[in-house]
TrEMBL record, chain A:
An annotated GO cellular component: membrane
Record membrane topology: Multi-pass membrane protein
Cellular compartments annotated: Membrane
Signal peptide stretch: none
UniProt keyword Transmembrane, yes or no: yes
Record-given protein name: Cation:proton antiporter
TrEMBL record, chain B:
Keywords for this protein: Cell membrane, Membrane, Transmembrane, Transmembrane helix
Chain ranges of the Na+/H+ antiporter MnhB subunit-related protein domain: 15-135
Protein name: Cation:proton antiporter
Regions crossing the membrane: 15-36, 48-65, 85-107, 119-142
UniProtKB/TrEMBL annotation, chain C:
UniProt cross-references to InterPro entries, sorted A to Z: CPA3_Na-H_Antiporter_D, NADH_UbQ_OxRdtase, ND/Mrp_TM
Bilayer-crossing regions: 6-22, 29-53, 73-95, 107-124, 160-180, 203-227, 239-263, 269-295, 302-321, 341-359, 371-393, 405-426, 489-512
Biological-process GO terms, alphabetical: ATP synthesis coupled electron transport
Boundaries of every NADH:quinone oxidoreductase/Mrp antiporter transmembrane domain copy: 125-421
Transmembrane helix as UniProt keyword: yes
Compartment(s) where it occurs, according to its Swiss-Prot or TrEMBL record: Cell membrane
Annotated protein name in UniProt: Cation:proton antiporter
TrEMBL record, chain D:
Primary localization class, coarse: membrane
Keyword Transmembrane helix listed: yes
Signal sequence interval, chain numbering: none
Name the record gives this protein: Cation:proton antiporter
MrpA C-terminal/MbhE domain residues: 97-176
Domain annotation MrpA C-terminal/MbhD: ranges: 14-77
Membrane topology label: Multi-pass membrane protein
Key words, A-Z: Cell membrane, Membrane, Transmembrane, Transmembrane helix, Transport
Subcellular location: Cell membrane
GO cellular component: plasma membrane
Segments passing through the bilayer: 6-25, 32-49, 55-74, 94-114, 157-174
ATP-binding as UniProt keyword: no
Length: 119, 168, 521, 180, 652
């Protein structure tokens, strides 16, 4: 068990981040914090990928700037792309939040629900 | 962020303005460097684009969003976006025209360094897109006067603007 | 190797840039760019289809880097059929949006980006590339949903964004699980490497589960469908028609790729329980979706829940894992897209004329919009599964495949769903054709019925009383809205396509079949 | 456990705490600050995992642009009153989260150890091909850039599309016609 | 049997489809539109008839339309069995087309274009059913038939009609789905669904459980349209449709497509041998026998003429199924021959009912006393057809029943012979009073008919029949299958109240009051077990009688208001007490049922109604007689004998 903790700590962190993120998305009453949760959730997945490309003692994959072993560049590429996707999603989500606030005057999910049923 | 409100909450601060005036060109240059230098070290079009956008954002914080917006008004942003995207696409399609596959830099047949130049052009395109979009996003989010605006937005909007204040 | 494959993605994006570049200089730029892109896309799709029909499966190495090192695009029978579908629906949407909007340049840019995203999902042969295109699709869809005028549209868009992003992220995590155990992302390469890892390894099983759940969210399978009814109901009709036809379809197609190309039927043989679970999930989706559809009074919501059910059927066909059912799933996937898009456009058109879009609002609309009503009727019966329309061809294969595989639950559910589908369409048709329009609803005559207010009168009023009042208020006789001709064209084309596809289902199947056959070898 | 691993574990723990704080802090501004701290922590993690490109991006995006966007948003909207420091715990969400984490935790043991040189990713022909040929084929020293722009250029094209799409999307959502 | 590639079967199916287009295109000009109907019908019949010589000489015209789904061809083949149905449908469509014109114009009905278009579509689908060469193609047309008929059932656009339409769709689609499931099972076990005279060989060796399940699904599915009990109740409700529809579709095309489906299953999918090995023939025959008897009993208790005819149809259709279930060659001939025989006779009867309705707006038998004076030819034709129904010689019914009788005795199931005798008596029981009172009584001296007035039975549908307020119970709303019941009915029923009600004491007293009467849900427990629940509404009346009188009679205005509570926007009648419109049926034309106060006037030959109606009536009646006198000359018997010979190898 201790051994597992030592060798697989990153994955435990992955699960922790996923859990925190998912909790944030589902439990936060505030729409902005839901989006924060979404970001945390995605970072959990990024961590999973980057960890998968890591080798003990590896140098960054700047060929010629270090010596083997290098970390696998592929996961880094994937995560770069995923980060960009993530920030784009965040921007759109925040724009939606701004518009929702404009219409309902609140960012509290329950309050919005109340307003809607009241309409 | 003292400069956020498009409605005049912005308070001029000499220290910030001076600092930004000094820093912004450096940030901008560093952004361009990162964009171009992605081939040799960490960095690339995306990171560089973000930094370039950050420089603009700094200006906006220092000199006020409206002032910066007025300064940037015109086709600059959308040219950056459309031009960057088109550059990327055209480099890809150009390879097809030259009988290669999409994005096959080798097809340009400009020697062994050709690939590298192709990659750097692509990075530049991405940088243009990213900086353009991020600047655009920032101003869009910050402006917030919607054509749909129902006019019932509560007054506390302005109050809320202040505590957001001093960041970044 | 055909250059049309990457161009399917690149061309719409290049055209999407045009309105951004010109911006407000010309009002029409957006529509013109979209129309040009749609036509070009259609040409490319047919060229891909031609290539596939001529030489079978074709692979394209982007950048000239051979897979698995570079990204591979794949054109086979299934993807060729789907890109043609994408082009056709795009073209129809562009035509339709000309009359009903939205008209802004940004709308058309986003629509083209969405087209590019879906095309990418369809042609890619790489799991991570698929993720990127899923996200392009998703992002564009969230924004398009929010183009609806109501504040609820923004809320629906955000809800969709949150749920959809969680789904896509779970998919990405699933890709991570496969990647960490094989080191590759190429679908074909993975298919070769997975058996060595061991299909019953917990890592692969978790990966599979994550992929399925992630795509299940995007496909809107029950109980992961929660975003879907709001998104469909709140977005403008042109958007609803487009996303109902293609977005969930793309996700279901991705699921097909995961099950058949990546995991292959040998996975089912090794771990039958995995797909049993999916069969149950899909079957529940069929039944619950249909029942919920029956309970709706808002037509767009009804059609939305209907999609939940129909995609349940499609996925059930996939999850049965035999050749016949898989083909049935694919046929229904294509057929459903055509039928549902037509139905949404028809509902949009009818709702414009009727001044409301609940079931009761449509009373007597057959007289005022005969063509659209007729097409709606044809599409409804097609979706119910009345032969020879395409709905039948899909269901037949799914049921037959399910029986062959001994998955009686799927066969039973498919049969039950037919009746439930009939239930929610029949009441609409009945309102359309066999009830008088409520406009002149003898309001003067009505007080005695209204004031009589005994239980009987209340019971028999059946909601038409209120519908009548609303109709009378909203529709002054002198300003009766009419069905835009573009809508009429689109609906009729959809109806004809649904029947023609059904009549030529054999040809459709002969294009799809080789793909499924290969995965069973 | 090597010293690098201990540092990594410490930074990861710090980041996770930052994330938890961002979720649990009731005041949104505090939450955003916690989120920025979390992003810095994660950027450090990327450096420790030999991913400087990702680290640079995370710093620029997570701690930079994303945070600015969050701040602009709350400046345009409203923060809930801060009578409590932390949110109440939603037990239903906890249950949902527990299912996911339980399922994932069950597989952690089956995953290859962190940094194992014989892990499938490290030994995969794809990784080896990139490390062996990226420089000679592209003339680019940064293998990440080579893979990003050349081998997986189509992904990157998609990425650029996402960015453009987001730009257009925000205009659509906010019903504006022009960027500036 | 040689197959000849020909486009004729396709033409027969396509012509009505083209007719649909023509009818829709010509909607602006009703006369030309009707011309299109007649021309199409004529051409269609011509094509079908042109195939007959080939059929008699053993050739089969086949049109191949390619593959429907892999492994299953979409082929139309005019084999002898299909020809029977095709001939009946196309010939009678022609006759009915004329009648439709007279009927629809006589009543000045709305939506006539839709009506004629759907009619042509239905016949096209029916021809497709007859020429389909395998189960799946059959299913294709079977479902199309459902879709095409639905607008006809719901034509009236009243709540009752919609209710009936809904029920029709539900029942028949349910049946269709069962057929599809059965077809899947057959395809799965044998790899083919093509019709093969004598049965698909592989089914004989298939797993008996699966084979039985497939048979149950197929027979059950087709049984819905064949109105086998207990899935028959859509048929009486569908009588809300205009009478020509009831006549052609619900006595000929639609219900016969169900029966025809059963015939296909018995003869060409399983084959008599396999069926008797599986032991599923007897249950089928038993269901049919039960249906014959129960439906006849129910028919006795209907006062509405069309409803009585509907139950008669249910009963008569089961003759065919009975013949198919008994499985002996002779009974097969009898069963199949009953397809045309019943078609001619029942069509005559419906035509008569329709003519009466158009001319006098009378729908209830109790109001028809003396109507023979008013409509002599019509009622004479009615009498002839009734005799045929009962199986008396010289009319078509006799021949088919004769074969059935011989067949059932041959095969050692004499109990079915008993059923046939008994049902013949019941037939006389429910037809004779109509004929008798039409000719030999007048409105004034008509007495209560014992069977009709039997206290348990609903002597007539309640005057406000089919009130939709009961719709939450499945079988209500069916009540008013037909239009307009009127005050005289109420009066008469009040007369009936004088009789002691033996069951009255057993009925739970639900404490009815004026308001509660209508939506009282009949308690099923008080209905006799063998009686269809749709008779529930009579129970309401019984309960009303316990109260002493009808709430309706006490508060006529309340009553009317209740009825109009639904969506029907038509303004109500201005004059109370003279007429009660049944709900929703009174759009545009109001009816006065029953004899005028002065009694039925006498009209001479040809003056009773238009020739558009009289002509078809006489033709149909003549057909029924011709089929009875010279069955062989009418082609049908010869074709049927060929069918049975091909299937069983026995020449009958």
């Amino acid at each position: 068990m201790i051994d597992l903790l030592a060798t697989h700590f990153n994955y435990l962190a992955v699960v922790a981040l996923l859990a925190i993120g998912l909790y944030g998305v589902t439990a936060s009453p505030n729409l902005v914090k839901k989006i924060i949760g979404l970001n945390v959730f995605q970072v959990g997945i990024f961590l999973f990928f980057v960890t998968s490309g890591f080798v003990d003692g590896a140098a960054p994959p700047l060929l010629g700037h270090g010596s083997a072993p290098y970390a696998s560049p592929l996961p880094h590429v994937l995560i770069l792309t995923a980060i960009v996707v993530g920030v784009s999603l965040t921007a759109v989500a925040l724009a939606l939040v701004v518009r929702i606030y404009d219409a309902y005057g609140t960012l509290d999910e329950d309050a919005i629900e109340e307003v809607r049923t009241y309409d | 962020m003292s400069g956020t409100g498009s409605d005049g909450v912005y308070v001029e601060s000499t220290i910030i303005m001076t600092t930004v005036r000094v820093i912004a060109p450096f940030v901008f240059t560093f952004g361009l460097f990162v964009m171009f230098h992605g081939a040799e070290s960490a960095g690339g079009g995306f990171q560089g684009g973000v930094l370039v956008a950050a420089a603009v954002l700094l200006l906006a914080f220092a000199f006020g969003i409206d002032a910066t917006r007025a300064w940037l008004a015109g086709p600059l942003t959308r040219t950056a976006i459309a031009g960057g995207g088109a550059a990327f696409a055209l480099i890809g399609v150009g390879a097809i025209v030259l009988d290669g596959a999409f994005l096959e830099y080798v097809a340009y047949d400009v020697g062994s360094t050709g690939v590298k130049y192709g990659i750097e052009l692509v990075e530049l395109g991405i940088g243009a897109v990213v900086s353009g979009v991020l600047v655009g996003l920032f101003f869009s989010l910050a402006s917030g006067d919607f054509t749909t605006s129902t006019g019932d937005a509560p007054d506390n909007e302005r109050d809320a603007a202040t505590p957001g204040g001093e960041e970044a | 190797m055909t250059d049309a494959l990457p161009l399917l993605v690149v061309v719409p994006i290049v055209f999407a840039l045009a309105p951004i570049a010109v911006d407000r200089v010309r009002e029409n730029t957006g529509w013109l760019a979209a129309a040009a892109a749609a036509v070009a896309h259609l040409g490319l799709s047919f060229s891909v289809l031609g290539t596939v029909l001529g030489s079978g499966r074709t692979s394209y190495a982007v950048g000239g880097y051979a897979p698995p090192f570079g990204i591979e695009l794949v054109a086979d029978g299934v993807s060729a059929v789907l890109v043609v579908l994408v082009s056709a629906v795009t073209l129809a949407t562009v035509v339709y949006a000309r009359s009903v909007g939205p008209r802004s340049n940004t709308f058309y840019s986003e629509l083209l980006v969405l087209t590019a995203g879906i095309s990418g999902v369809v042609v890619t042969g790489d799991l991570f590339n698929l993720y990127v295109f899923l996200e392009i699709t998703g992002l564009a869809t969230y924004a398009l949903v929010a183009t609806g005028r109501s504040p609820a549209a923004a809320l629906a868009g955000l809800k969709y964004l949150l749920v959809g992003t969680i789904g896509a992220s779970l998919y990405l995590l699933g890709v991570g699980y496969l990647y960490i155990s094989t080191g590759t992302l190429n679908m074909a390469d993975l298919a070769g490497l997975l058996p060595a890892v061991g299909y019953d390894s917990p890592v692969l099983l978790t990966g599979f589960a994550l992929l399925v759940v992630g795509l299940g969210v995007k496909t809107a399978l029950f109980p992961l469908h929660t975003w879907q009814p709001d998104a469909y109901a709140e977005s403008p009709t042109s958007v609803t028609a487009y996303i109902s036809a293609l977005v969930s379809t793309a996700a279901a197609y991705a699921l097909f790729r995961v099950i058949y190309t990546v995991f292959t039927p040998t996975f089912d043989a090794a771990v039958p329980a995995a797909l049993d679970v999916l069969v149950v999930l899909a079957s529940v989706s069929v039944v619950v979706g249909s029942v919920l559809a029956v309970l709706q009074s808002d037509l767009k919501r009804m059609l939305a829940y209907s999609s939940v059910a129909q995609f349940g059927l499609v996925v059930a066909g996939f999850a049965v894992v035999n050749q016949t059912a898989a083909i049935g799933g694919l046929v229904h996937l294509v057929g459903h897209a055509v039928m549902k898009a037509g139905l949404f456009v028809a509902v949009g058109a009818l709702a414009t004329v009727a001044g409301g879009r609940t079931v009761d609002d449509l009373a007597g609309m057959a007289d005022r919009a005969p063509v659209v009503s007729g097409a709606f009727a044809v599409l409804s019966f097609a979706l119910v599964g009345v032969p020879p329309a395409v709905g039948f061809a899909g269901k037949w294969h799914i049921v037959l495949g399910a029986v062959e595989a001994g998955r009686w639950i799927v066969a039973g559910v498919a049969v039950v769903s037919t009746l439930l589908t009939l239930a929610y369409f029949a009441r609409v048709l009945e309102r359309l054709y066999f009830r008088d329009a409520p406009v002149a609803a003898g309001v003067a005559d009505r007080p005695d019925a209204a004031t009589a207010s005994d239980t009987d009168a209340a019971l028999t009023a059946d909601g038409s009383g209120s519908g009548g009042a609303a109709g009378a208020d909203n529709n002054p006789v002198d300003a009766v809205p009419t069905v835009p001709p573009q809508a009429r064209v689109v609906v009729v084309v959809a109806a004809v396509a649904a029947v023609v596809l059904g009549v030529f289902a054999t040809d459709l199947i002969s294009v799809l079949e080789p793909v499924v056959e290969v995965s069973f070898q | 456990m090597t010293s690098e691993a201990i540092v990594l574990a410490a930074v990861l723990t710090f980041s996770a705490l930052g994330a938890a704080a961002a979720i649990l802090l009731r005041d949104v501004l505090n939450a955003i600050i916690a989120f920025a701290a979390f992003s810095f922590g994660i950027a450090t993690v990327w450096v420790l995992l030999a991913a400087p490109d990702v680290a640079l991006t995370e710093a620029a995006v997570g701690a930079g642009i994303t945070t600015v966007f969050f701040l602009v948003t709350i400046a345009k909207t409203v923060r809930p009153g801060g009578e409590r420091l932390f949110e109440r715990i939603e037990w239903r969400s906890v249950a949902v989260v527990a299912i996911l984490s339980g399922a994932l935790l069950a597989t952690v043991g089956s995953l290859p150890a962190v940094g194992a040189a014989d892990a499938p990713v490290a030994t995969s022909p794809v990784t080896e091909y990139y490390l062996a040929n990226a420089y000679s084929e592209t003339g680019v020293e940064n293998a990440v850039t080579a893979v990003l722009a050349a081998y997986r250029g189509f992904d990157t094209f998609g990425e650029a599309t996402v960015v453009i799409s987001a730009g257009v999307a925000v205009l659509l959502v906010l019903r504006q016609e022009a960027y500036v | 049997m040689t197959e000849i590639l020909s486009l004729r079967p396709l033409a027969a199916v396509l012509l009505p489809a083209i007719g649909v287009l023509a009818i829709v295109a010509l909607r602006r000009n009703p006369d030309v539109r009707e011309g299109a109907t007649i021309l199409t019908a004529l051409a269609t019949f011509g094509i079908v008839a042109s195939i007959v010589p080939a059929t008699l000489s053993g050739d089969v015209y086949v049109t191949r339309l390619g593959t429907l789904v892999p492994g299953i061809e979409l082929t139309l083949s005019a084999d002898p069995l299909g020809m029977i149905f095709a001939l009946v449908a196309s010939l009678l469509w022609l006759v009915t087309s004329f009648y439709s014109i007279g009927y629809m114009r006589g009543l000045d009905e709305h939506s006539q274009t839709r009506y004629f278009a759907a009619f042509a579509g239905s016949v096209g689908a029916a021809l497709g059913v007859s020429f389909a060469s395998n189960l799946v193609s059959l299913y294709v047309f079977y479902e199309l038939l459902t879709v095409a008929t639905y607008p006809l059932v719901a034509h009236d656009e009243s709540e009752t009609a919609r209710e009936a339409g809904r029920k029709y769709l539900t029942y028949t689609f349910g049946g269709g789905v069962a057929v599809l499931a059965g077809a899947v099972l057959v395809f799965w076990t044998t790899g083919t669904v093509a019709f093969t005279p004598g049965g698909i060989a592989a089914l004989a060796s298939a797993d008996p459980v699966i084979a039985r399940a497939a048979f149950a699904l197929l027979a059950g599915g087709f049984g819905v349209k064949a109105a086998l009990m207990p899935v028959h109740s859509w048929l009486p409700d569908a009588m809300v449709a205009p009478t020509p529809v009831s006549g052609l579709l619900h006595a000929v095309a639609v219900v016969k497509s169900g029966v025809f489906g059963v015939a296909r299953v018995v003869l060409d999918v399983f084959g008599p041998e396999t069926i008797s090995e599986l032991g599923v023939g007897l249950p089928l025959a038993a269901v049919a026998a039960l249906t014959i008897l129960v439906a006849s009993v129910i028919a006795l208790r209907q006062d509405n003429l069309k409803r009585r005819l509907a139950y008669s149809t249910i009963s008569q259709l089961s003759y065919i199924v009975l013949g198919l279930g008994i499985l002996s060659p002779t009974s097969l001939v009898g069963g199949l021959l009953h397809i045309p025989a019943h078609a001619f006779m029942k069509l005559t009867l419906f035509f008569c009912a329709g003519a009466i309705h158009v001319e006098t707006h009378t729908d209830n038998i109790s109001e028809m006393a003396g109507i023979g004076r008013r409509m002599p030819v019509t009622m004479a034709a009615f009498a002839v057809a009734s005799l045929g129904m009962a199986g008396l010689p010289l009319v078509a019914g006799f021949v088919s029943k004769w074969y059935l009788l011989i067949g059932s005795i041959d095969s050692g199931t004499a109990v079915f012979a008993g059923v046939l005798f008994l049902s013949g008596l019941l037939n006389i029981g429910y037809f004779w009073p109509i004929v008798y009172q039409a000719f030999f009584q007048t409105a004034d001296d008509s007495d209560a008919k014992p069977l009709v007035e039997f206290p348990l039975g609903g002597q007539r549908v309640r005057a406000d029949g089919g009130d939709p307020v009961d719709r939450d119970e499945e079988d209500d709303g069916t009540a008013g299958g037909d239009d307009d019941q009127t005050d005289p009915a109420d009066t008469e029923s009040s007369a009936g109240d004088d009789q002691t009600d033996p069951n009255g004491g057993a009925d739970p007293d639900t404490g009815l009051d004026a308001g509660a009467l209508i939506d009282t849900t009949p308690t099923e427990g008080t209905v006799e077990p063998d009686i269809d629940p749709s008779e529930g509404e009579s129970q309401v009346e019984l309960e009303a009688k316990v109260e002493g009188e009808y709430a309706v009679d006490r508060h006529p205005s309340d009553h009317r208001r209740d009825e109009r509570g639904d969506d029907d926007p038509a303004p109500a009648d201005a004059v109370p007490d003279t007429e009660h419109h049944a709900d929703g049926t009174d759009d545009g034309h109001s009816h006065h049922g029953g004899a005028p106060a002065s009694g039925w006037e006498a009209r001479g030959f040809g003056a009773e109604t238009t020739w558009f109606m009289l002509g078809p009536i006489t033709v149909a009646a003549a057909g029924a007689v011709a089929l009875g006198i010279a069955p062989r000359a009418m082609v049908f018997l010869a074709v049927i004998q060929r069918v049975v010979f091909e299937v069983t190898g026995v020449a009958v």
